[in-house]
Specification:
This protein is an alpha/beta fold. It has a single domain (about 10-130), classed as Response regulator (Rossmann fold, 3-Layer(aba) Sandwich), CATH 3.40.50.2300. The chain has five helices and five strands; from the N terminus they run βαβαβαβαβα. A five-stranded parallel β-sheet has the order 2-1-3-4-5, with helices on both faces. The protein is globular and about 30 Å long.
Amino acid sequence: MVSTPKRLLLVEDDAHDARFVMRAFAQVDETIDLVLAADADDAIAQLARTHFDFVLLDIKMPGSDGIELLRRIRRGQATVLIPVIVLTSSSNPTDVLHCYRAGANAYVAKPASVAGYRHFAEAFVRFWIENTILPPGMTTRR
């Protein structure tokens, strides 16, 4: 089955973590167009300019935190249906609850190794890209 390339917005303030995620996705599926936003303001600007199929969101960021960004994404008419997967270092049950209440589609603790990032990317592609049916109109528009 031929799939359309997907656009993925990675919202991550830590350069090392961003590099691990980007490298893992590049190794797993080179058709994914992964764009980095270093903070919430950058993410909002990116989302206003470009359609994304998915958002990978860290919640522990300086300034406006990821949970507030998630709420903003869910309030936006053009972004309300975009699947948002929280990828964060926190496994605090309160953070998990706040994210799901704010509209997260999934919550994942950041891997502890490079191999773990690759495993995450493989699982992401297998579930979200190869098996999930998204709402009509959610295909990438360029």
